[in-house]
């Protein structure tokens, strides 16, 4: 599941909506919506994200969060480390090799550390 898919599922369930209801309102198939929630589809289009934001009637911070999550939800990531430090290549390869075995707590910790580092570096 992707961060965007998890958030969409959370919003849908909080409002007591079926996948079929939401899919019909968005003009997509229930199978597509299911694949999107489960992370079996790529990053949704900007247009679809905007329809979801309007459908749930979310504004400001929550709308920005949905857009950010959509941008960070490609389930097939390619990391190009050419020209970077050797440690960057090692990190990318270690993560690729071991990501399936990491616990949820370890994943959350890594994400937290990377976000903190990015904020510190101004990225």
Molecular structure report:
With 123 residues, the chain is mainly alpha-helical. The protein has two domains: 3-71, 434 Repressor (Amino-terminal Domain), CATH 1.10.260.40; 86-121, no CATH class. It has helices spanning 3-14, 19-26, 30-38, 46-56, 60-71, 86-98, 104-121. The longest helix is centred in the C-terminal third of the chain and has 18 residues, at 104-121. The model has no long low-confidence stretch (mean pLDDT 93).
Attribute tags:
123 residues, mainly alpha, 7 helices, 2 domains, 434 Repressor (Amino-terminal Domain), 67% helix
Brief summary of the model shown:
With 123 residues, this protein is mainly alpha-helical. It has seven helices and no strands. It folds into two domains: 3-71, 434 Repressor (Amino-terminal Domain); 86-121, no CATH class.
